[in-house]
C-alpha cells in the first residue's frame, strides 16, 4: 500500500472540509478550493482527518492513491497557510515594479511587460533585492503563474541575466573567449 496514500490528512482549526462522494470542498481563512477525484478511491472524514483508501491493488488505482492524498493535503494547507514562490530578477537595468496589483517587468525589451494576476494570486516585490513573490492558496496555480513569469525572460547561460527561481543554479558557459584552438 502507498506510504503517502495511507497517511491521514489532519484538518487544522478554522478549516472546513466537505466530502460528497469523490468531490472534496475545502474552505479556510485564505480561500476555498474544490476538486473532484477518481471514483475508484474512497475519501472519508475520520476523527478530524481525511482518509483516502483504495479497494484493491490494481496498478491504475495504486498510481492515483498517493497523488489524491497529496492533492487533498495541498488543498488543506493552501486554504490555511497559503503557498508562495519567489523569483529573482538578474541583469543590469532589469527590475520589477507594481502598479496597483499589476506586475510590470522591465527586462531589456523595447517595452515593459505587464502581468495581470489571476483570481486568487497576489504579487509582492522587493525592489532592493529585485525579487518577486507569487502568493496564493492554490499550489498548482501559484507554480504555473511563477513559471509563466520566468518564461518571459529565462536565465541565459553566458551572463546569467533573466528571471530565475530563488536559489536556482544556472550553469554558465565560457563563450567565445573560452574556446581553445
Characterise this structure.
The protein has two domains: 9-80, Outer Surface Protein A, domain 3 (Alpha-Beta Complex), CATH 3.90.930; 83-165, Ribosomal protein L6 (Outer Surface Protein A, domain 3, Alpha-Beta Complex), CATH 3.90.930. The protein is 20% helix and 36% strand. The protein has two helices and 13 strands, in the order ββββββαββββββαβ. It has a four-stranded antiparallel sheet, with helices on one face. A hairpin with a 2-residue loop joins strand 3 (23-28) and strand 4 (31-36). This is Large ribosomal subunit protein uL6. Part of the 50S ribosomal subunit.
Key terms:
13 strands; 181 residues; 20% helix; Outer Surface Protein A, domain 3; four-stranded antiparallel sheet; alpha+beta; single chain; three-stranded antiparallel sheet; elongated
Summarize this entry quickly.
One of its GO terms (biological process) is cytoplasmic translation. The chain is an alpha+beta fold.
- The name CATH uses for the topology of the largest domain is Outer Surface Protein A, domain 3
Uncertain ranges = none
Number of strands: 13
Instruction: Summarize the helix and strand pattern as letters.
Output: EEEEEEHEEEEEEHE
- The secondary-structure class comes to alpha+beta
Rounded to the nearest angstrom, the radius of gyration is 21 Å
Using the 3D structure, state the CATH architecture of the largest domain. Alpha-Beta Complex
Strand order of the largest sheet: 11-12-7-13
Largest sheet: 4 strands, antiparallel
CATH class of the largest domain: Alpha Beta
State mean pLDDT (0 to 100 scale): 92
Approximate strand percentage: 35-45%
Name of the CATH superfamily of the largest domain: Ribosomal protein L6
Percent in helix: 10-25%
Report the span from N to C terminus: 58 Å
Overall tally of domains: 2
Tally of separate helices: 2
Write down the overall geometry: elongated
Keywords: Ribonucleoprotein, Ribosomal protein, RNA-binding, rRNA-binding
Protein name: Large ribosomal subunit protein uL6
GO molecular function: rRNA binding; structural constituent of ribosome
InterPro entries: Ribosomal_uL6-like, Ribosomal_uL6-like_a/b-dom_sf, Ribosomal_uL6_a/b-dom, Ribosomal_uL6_bac-type, Ribosomal_uL6_CS
Amino acid at each position: 500500500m502507498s506510504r503517502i496514500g495511507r497517511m491521514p490528512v489532519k484538518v487544522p482549526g478554522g478549516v472546513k472540509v466537505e466530502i460528497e462522494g469523490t468531490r472534496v470542498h475545502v474552505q479556510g481563512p485564505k480561500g476555498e478550493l474544490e476538486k473532484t477525484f477518481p471514483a475508484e478511491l474512497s475519501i472519508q472524514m475520520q476523527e478530524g482527518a481525511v482518509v483516502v483508501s483504495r479497494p484493491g491493488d490494481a496498478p491504475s488505482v495504486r498510481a492515483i492513491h498517493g497523488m489524491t492524498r497529496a492533492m487533498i493535503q495541498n488543498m488543506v494547507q493552501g486554504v490555511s497557510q497559503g503557498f508562495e514562490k519567489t523569483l529573482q530578477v538578474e541583469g543590469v537595468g532589469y527590475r520589477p515594479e507594481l502598479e496597483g496589483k499589476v506586475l510590470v517587468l522591465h527586462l531589456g525589451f523595447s517595452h515593459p511587460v505587464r502581468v495581470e494576476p489571476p483570481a486568487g494570486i497576489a504579487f509582492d516585490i522587493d525592489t532592493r533585492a529585485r525579487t518577486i513573490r507569487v502568493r496564493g492558496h492554490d499550489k498548482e496555480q501559484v507554480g504555473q503563474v511563477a513559471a509563466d513569469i520566468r518564461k518571459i525572460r529565462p536565465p541565459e547561460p553566458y551572463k546569467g541575466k533573466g528571471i530565475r527561481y530563488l536559489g536556482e543554479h544556472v550553469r554558465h558557459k565560457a563563450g567565445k573567449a573560452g574556446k581553445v584552438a
